[in-house]
Amino acid sequence: MLLMKLKFVTVGILISLSSVLGDTPANCTYEDIAGSWVFHLSAGNKNRNVNCSETFSTKNTIKISLIYPDIAIDEFNNRGFWTLIYNQGFEVVIAGRKYFGFSKYVGSSSFCDKIIGGWSHDIRGNDWACYNGQKSGAAITKTNVVKKDFGLKFSHRINSQEMVASINAAQNSWQAVRYPQFEGLRDEDFINLAGGPMSVIHSRPKPAPLTDAHKRLMGSLPESFDWRNVNGVNYVSPVRNQGGCGSCYAFAALAMDEARIRILTNNTQKPVFSPQDVVECSPYSQGCAGGFPYLISGKYAEDYGLVLEECNSYKGIDGICTTNSTCPRHYFTNYKYVGGYYGATNEAVILQALYEGGPLAVGFMVYSDFSNYKSGIYHHIDSISDNLGRFNPFEITNHAVLLVGWGVDKKTSEKYWIVKNSWGENWGIDGYFWIRRGTDECGFESLAVESTPVFTFNS
Ligand SMILES: *[C@@H]1O[C@H](CO)[C@@H](O)[C@H](O)[C@H]1NC(C)=O
Ligand SMILES: *[C@@H]1O[C@H](CO)[C@@H](O)[C@H](O)[C@H]1NC(C)=O
Ligand SMILES: *[C@@H]1O[C@H](CO)[C@@H](O)[C@H](O)[C@H]1NC(C)=O
Ligand SMILES: *[C@@H]1O[C@H](CO)[C@@H](O)[C@H](O)[C@H]1NC(C)=O
Description:
By secondary structure, the chain is α+β, with helices and mostly antiparallel strands. Helices cover about 20% and strands about 25% of the residues. The longest helix has 17 residues, at about 250-265.
């Protein structure tokens, strides 16, 4: 316990949130993004470490129509794919190239008709260029509603005896406990634990409606399943501890990729990948301020590859990229939102993808009551968090975790998911938690992602 507490404290205080609190991520929805776009591309070359924040002159221009929810058509009538990526930006795959960029944002304002400094490369990753995108029509500028009193009024309430007692008195489904390692945690630290300020999703999708085919599919799957015990074999790598860095997205993404290698190799390969490499080196995330599994387990792992833990061991702080460049990189592909695109996810497709492909990285909304989870089937208790938790920052963060299985409580028939967290083994059920299934609890069934290991190195 003491060791873990020290870890949190040493890692926790080093984080400075002041630099990022001014910025909240973009809030661009399908309505804002679907339509006609023009992409202005720089000259291409083989350098995938191209810095797309720098200004460039236009070498090529392409016109693309994005049709809800996932069809892209270019000016030559090529058909391709696109998906919104959380509310941060979008990815297009068309005519042999991929395009990804964040929607422009400044402070709490989003400019959803603009992509600045996007990355484009051919499917094989041999020709990289930068692009700026402009949507036709009127400017789409939105300002997020930001709580002004964040960080002042609501501090020092996490982990209180009052809150834990109220949770346990209010219901029997799950049990809460105070954690010594969370003693004195400030809201800022908790935001980092639960996703980081840049992991906020301003307009979360609802799960896709369950069709009859989805219901038949669910009926065909076992009542319970756990990748930690498939006929006695465990395919999930050990629980880790992200400390005070908002790097859950990296832990969840890498844990999925680790488990999928174990599954595909029948446990003959058990890599543990480096989240510090992601924190320091990924252009597709914001270090300890947050990020998203789609862009790491998938896009970063396809474009740049992952390295083993020993190539850049975990420190839980931001920094320049210090990964040992002689280390081999491990690639993943076919990354996608479960169901195909952003908003296509639901309980049935998650069950199927989990059962057939392996663990999934999932993002869900964390409220203060969750931090004190000890055991049982978690569901958010509204009144308690609002009245006692006082954890009410500018927006609920999006915490990324690893979904490894499901079950049903024999007594109550309550359905649940089995989930690996990245808060160490001294939290929850040996580092895991159960959460209510079938009701999109805390948005758990709307945003799952998957990707597939590649066993050839492309560099
Ligand atoms: C990329 O370029 C921008 C603008 O010139 C600069 O601020 C930033 O530090 C550069 N990033 C890297 C990783 O070199
Ligand atoms: C994000 O955009 C949606 C749709 O335009 C809007 O309903 C929502 O209030 C916005 N969120 C914030 C935090 O401003
Ligand atoms: C997978 O590994 C187990 C345990 O080592 C072994 O018994 C089994 O035969 C292996 N399966 C395959 C298909 O190689
Ligand atoms: C990088 O890795 C190589 C080979 O694994 C090793 O010899 C070298 O000492 C490492 N460099 C650093 C700075 O750790």
